[in-house]
């Protein structure tokens, strides 16, 4: 941050004197003024919002980091993507008003057209715009209730669909997110198809059959009055779990049999990250509704739900003041154009595959790495006490995250109980991906060895 940036903040904020370039100072201020955080303030320093390019970002002290999170899949094009300044200048000229959802505007309509074109299904579709992923899920839930007249849903464990009303009722990721909050929906919940932790072994077909049988049994016991089955096409928050294609196909068949809708939550996995616009396409499944957000607005809060038309029985069944206002819609169109013109889905598929192969090879001998898995630029490394027991090792995971951030300057995030996730920008190059692997392997080497050393020392004493 330079003097000009500091002067700008002083101009904006009455009475602001000092703007110290100190992470601890601003972390204290955050602690004092922000109601909540999900971020571990002992691990992550404060980012300098005025710097960064592509996958490279900086903290207030000027340390440079290789970012493998893209703001939890938000910065699909990385920091300051090519052409963004020119685009923003033109944007300032063409979009002056910020009308709410009640008033149509051309950018919003064009974005809706574009999204229906890239969404699977040879049928008429509608789009509802929101300002977050959870609201995109709320929209799908309300649409399903309105269209089917039913109120019971199917969701899985683990599952993350957001933290507001209906979305929270569908979520089952960490108890702290749910405990004590009244659950707004009746949910029939069964296990997600999770090959690594499947009780019938890690064979994908057997895992899919087991998970589908669990669901069929639950429906037989609890009732067929299901409005929709809501599923993450690749479970993000719950641990970067890639379900077998047969699982997703089986859900489509069960939904058809029940007369229920199938909702694909692709808030994290969607918009090219796994190598196709939507992860569910790779299983050859056409859902009735798809939820998206995160990457859509190019950093501006935006979400959308695409569904079979009509999504609601009549007008005014649902609404949101801030939806695709013109600037946001134009920014989203810019993001989609960049993904397509720069062939970024192919980049995610190719570089993601190489990165995962490299992680596999380099971590093959580490007994505390249970599994490396993923698709495209959505990958996870799950840590265990040892490969035999497969017991989750959150302490090892946490130590590796800390080592990555503090020592290797590699910005990574946890997911699930003991997984580290990689969600790099779709623009990440082969060299950057391999550099991330190098840094990560170094952190794993240091922490797994040091933990083993510590355990031995404890036994010896
Ligand atoms: C799959 C999925 N659905 C929904 C959400 C909620 O999105 P938001 O935080 O924008 O409400 C998330 C957020 O991580 C997500 O990963």
Essential attributes:
single chain; 461 residues; alpha/beta; Aspartate Aminotransferase, domain 1; Aspartate Aminotransferase, domain 2; 2 domains; seven-stranded mixed β-sheet; four-stranded antiparallel β-sheet; 14 strands; 41% helix; globular; binds pyridoxal-5'-phosphate
Characterize the structure shown.
This protein has 461 residues and is of the alpha/beta class. The protein has two domains: 3-81 and 344-460, Aspartate Aminotransferase, domain 1 (Alpha-Beta Complex); 88-341, 3-Layer(aba) Sandwich (Aspartate Aminotransferase, domain 2), CATH 3.40.640.10. Helix content is 41%, strand content 15%. It is built from 14 helices and 14 strands. Strands 3-9-8-7-6-4-5 form a seven-stranded mixed sheet, sandwiched between helices. Strands 10-11-14-13 form a four-stranded antiparallel sheet. α12 runs parallel beside α14 (430-460) and α13 (394-408) crosses α14. The protein starts with a helix and ends with a helix. The mean pLDDT is 94. Bound molecules: pyridoxal-5'-phosphate. Pyridoxal-5'-phosphate (PLP) binds next to α6.
């Amino acid at each position: 941050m330079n003097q000009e940036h500091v002067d700008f903040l002083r101009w904006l904020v009455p009475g602001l004197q000092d703007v110290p370039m100190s992470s601890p100072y601003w972390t204290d201020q955050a602690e004092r003024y922000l109601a909540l955080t999900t971020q571990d303030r002992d691990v992550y320093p404060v980012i300098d919002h005025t710097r960064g390019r592509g996958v490279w970002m900086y903290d207030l002290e000027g340390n440079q980091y290789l970012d493998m999170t893209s703001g939890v899949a938000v910065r699909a094009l990385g920091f300051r993507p090519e052409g963004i300044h020119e685009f923003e200048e033109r944007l300032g000229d063409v979009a002056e008003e910020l009308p709410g959802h009640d008033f149509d505007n051309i950018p919003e309509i064009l974005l809706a057209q574009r999204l229906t074109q890239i969404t699977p299904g040879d049928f008429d579709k509608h789009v509802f715009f929101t300002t977050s992923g959870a609201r995109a899920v709320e929209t799908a839930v309300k649409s399903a209730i309105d269209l089917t007249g039913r109120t019971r849903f199917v969701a899985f464990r683990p599952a993350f669909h957001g933290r507001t009303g209906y979305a929270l009722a569908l979520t089952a990721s960490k108890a702290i997110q749910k405990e004590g909050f009244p659950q707004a929906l009746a949910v029939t919940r069964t296990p997600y198809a999770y090959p690594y932790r499947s009780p019938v072994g890690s064979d994908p077909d057997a895992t899919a059959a087991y998970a589908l049988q669990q669901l069929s049994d639950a429906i037989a016991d609890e009732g067929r009055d299901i409005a929709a089955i809501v599923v993450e096409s690749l479970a993000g928050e719950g641990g970067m779990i890639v379900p077998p294609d047969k699982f997703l196909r089986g859900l489509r068949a069960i939904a058809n049999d029940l007369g229920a809708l199938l909702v694909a939550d692709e808030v994290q996995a969607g918009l090219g990250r796994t190598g196709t616009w939507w992860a569910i396409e790779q299983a050859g499944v056409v859902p009735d509704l798809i939820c998206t957000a995160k990457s859509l607005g190019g950093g501006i809060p935006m979400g959308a739900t695409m569904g079979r038309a009509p999504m609601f029985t009549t007008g005014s069944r649902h609404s949101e003041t801030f939806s695709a206002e013109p600037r946001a819609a134009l920014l989203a169109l810019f993001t989609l154009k960049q993904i397509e013109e720069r062939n970024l889905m192919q980049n995610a598929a190719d570089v993601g595959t190489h990165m995962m192969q490299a992680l596999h090879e380099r971590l093959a001998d580490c007994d505390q790495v249970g599994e490396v898995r993923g698709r495209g630029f959505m990958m996870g490394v799950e840590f265990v006490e040892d490969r035999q027991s497969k017991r989750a090792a959150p302490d090892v995971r946490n130590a590796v995250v800390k080592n990555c951030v503090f020592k290797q300057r590699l910005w990574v995030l946890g997911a699930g109980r003991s997984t580290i996730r990689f969600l790099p920008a779709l623009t990440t190059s082969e060299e950057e991906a391999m550099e991330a692997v190098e840094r990560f392997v170094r952190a794993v080497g240091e922490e797994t060895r040091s933990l083993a050393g510590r355990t031995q020392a404890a036994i010896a004493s």
